[in-house]
Amino acid sequence: MILIQAIIQPIRLSTVREALEQAGYGETMAGDATGYGRQRGQVATFRGNEYRIDLLRKVILSLIVDDDDADEVIAIIRSAAKTGTQGEIGDGKIFTIPVAEAITIG
């Protein structure tokens, strides 16, 4: 089993979840995240003053899949999460983590 964690733009969450559900991967968890990568935050102006916003709002989407399904799930997420035709800096990252066992509580 593989734990796939995708850190994506909040505006792409519903699109990514719908694409995963249509492909049969409906069991996902989502949570808020903040951080930055290569884009290093952004500069905003408020009442004439410039402020640097270093930590940008993101969403972290997690799901566990069989090893054989990992490449398909990654392709679905990459396709649905990108904001431009080629994708843009800040669209996110995908991490894969081996899972030895998943135990249901209850």
Protein architecture, described:
With 106 residues, the protein is an alpha+beta fold. The chain has a single domain, classed as Alpha-Beta Plaits (2-Layer Sandwich). It is built from two helices and six strands. A four-stranded antiparallel β-sheet has the order 2-5-1-6, covered by helices on one side. Strands 3-4 form a two-stranded antiparallel ribbon. The longest helix is centred in the last third of the chain and has 12 residues. The protein is elongated and about 55 Å long. It starts with a strand and ends in an 8-residue tail after the last strand. The model has no long low-confidence stretch (mean pLDDT 89).
